[in-house]
Amino acid sequence: MNIKTLEIFVSLADLGSYSRVAAEMNLSQPAVSMQIKNLEEKMSAELVARKGRGVELTRTGRVFYRRVSELLREWEDVQLEIERLQESRLDEICIGASTIPSSHIIPELLSDFCRGYPEIKMTVRVGDSQDIIELLDDREIELAVIGKKPESIELEVMPLIKDELHLLVSRNDELFGRDSVSLKEILERKLLIREKGSATRRTMMNALREAGADRKDLDIRAVLETNEAIISAVEAGLGVSFISRLASNKALEWGRVGKINLDGVRMERNFYISHPPGRIQGTPLESFVRLARDFSR
């Protein structure tokens, strides 16, 4: 039994036709039939049954299909890892970051990393946390720094750094200069929030919900896709907003906006670094992860 035979079987299960498999895999139809027959003899079990002009899997075939599909995915990962380890040099790396890490974490990490690997060209894909997790799941990027913990058990995840959301108000707002406000006062204000998929928005909504405020209680004036857009909108008096400490520090230092505490509510979250298991060992990205660990200390 070889990998090619297993690939033919999986294709037959997916396509349901010997002729379609033959055309897709550039084989003759008799060759496909022979491979399946030999596989069934090897397994001492009927795996495929004729149905009209096509085929369907038997009960045993369905079990075999599930396990073989897992095996082929593992085999593909093994091939990719070996190719990566055998490359004499790695001259381009693509990583992903959600909006806050891309502006406030990644630049420092890349500066340190590129001093050790000046020949490597880095590409950073930027989006909200959910978009970046999907790129990582699809293997379009090799590593991600994000504000939402991936749920996939097929990814390694490490907490990187803690963050807290600040409530920002305009300097012309009557709340400006106060130490704290009540939830009731905030619910009477126009609110500016991030887009769906944003970990900032998720953290804010979860904290407000725990404090007793549902989305229907919020008077949302605008949804904006970047933190700088929200800070500028707050500065212009469009509304108030909850923004990451990392993203708002400079605006606060320069006096563009003011910060107020929300009574009894803390909006805290982690940033995470995540990658597929076994994909960075022996590559320069292993050094990148070490730098990230040092950054978080």
UniProtKB/TrEMBL annotation:
The family assignment reads: Belongs to the LysR transcriptional regulatory family.
Listed InterPro entries: LysR-like_Sec_metab, LysR_HTH_N, LysR_subst-bd, WH-like_DNA-bd_sf, WH_DNA-bd_sf
Annotated keywords? DNA-binding, Transcription, Transcription regulation
GO MF terms listed in the record are: DNA-binding transcription factor activity; transcription cis-regulatory region binding
A Pfam family it matches: HTH_1
Known PROSITE patterns for this protein?
HTH_LYSR
Q: Which stretches make up the HTH lysR-type domain?
A: 1-58
Is the Magnesium keyword given for this protein? no
Please give the superkingdom of this protein's source: Bacteria
Q: Does the keyword DNA-binding apply?
A: yes
Q: What is this protein called?
A: DNA-binding transcriptional regulator, LysR family
